[in-house]
């Protein structure tokens, strides 16, 4: 009379397990939502000029005498460092 039968234990288990199951589902949904970006990232901006074009332009400046050897070397190093 005073003890719990197997049916009482089963009902108690279901009553306690149901909110736990709902909590796990909500937690997984929130976790999945946070992993996805809300908006697709913007495409990368195109480079103003390719490295090859910039090096050619720099060589033309040196060939025309508009920059000296030291300036050419400094600018060339800057372009190559941008890799």
SSE order: HHH
**Overall tally of structural domains:** 2
Low-confidence stretches: none
Please compute the radius of gyration using only Cα atoms: 34 Å
User: Major sheet, described briefly?
Assistant: none
Report the count of strand segments: 0
- End-to-end separation in angstroms reads 82 Å
Secondary-structure-based class equals mainly alpha
Strand percentage: under 5%
**Which word captures the global form?**
rod-shaped
Average residue pLDDT: 84
- Helical content band: 55-70%
Q: Count of helical segments? A: 3
Summarize the structure.
With 83 residues, the protein is an all-alpha fold.
Tell me what the structure shows.
The chain is mainly α and 83 residues long. The chain has two domains: 1-38; 49-83. It has three helices and no strands. The protein has helices at 6-35, 51-63, 69-81. Helix 2 (51-63) packs antiparallel against helix 3 (69-81). The longest helix has 30 residues, at 6-35.
Task: Please give the structural blueprint.
Layout: H1 6-35, H2 51-63, H3 69-81
Task: Quickly list its features.
83 residues; mainly alpha; 2 domains
């Amino acid at each position: 009379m005073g003890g719990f039968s197997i049916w009482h234990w089963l009902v108690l288990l279901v009553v306690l397990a149901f909110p736990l199951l709902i909590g796990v589902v909500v937690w997984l949904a929130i976790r999945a939502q946070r992993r996805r970006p809300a908006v697709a990232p913007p495409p990368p901006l195109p480079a103003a000029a390719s490295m090859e074009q910039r090096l050619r332009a720099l060589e033309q400046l040196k060939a025309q005498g508009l920059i000296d050897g030291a300036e050419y070397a400094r600018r060339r190093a800057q372009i190559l460092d941008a890799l």
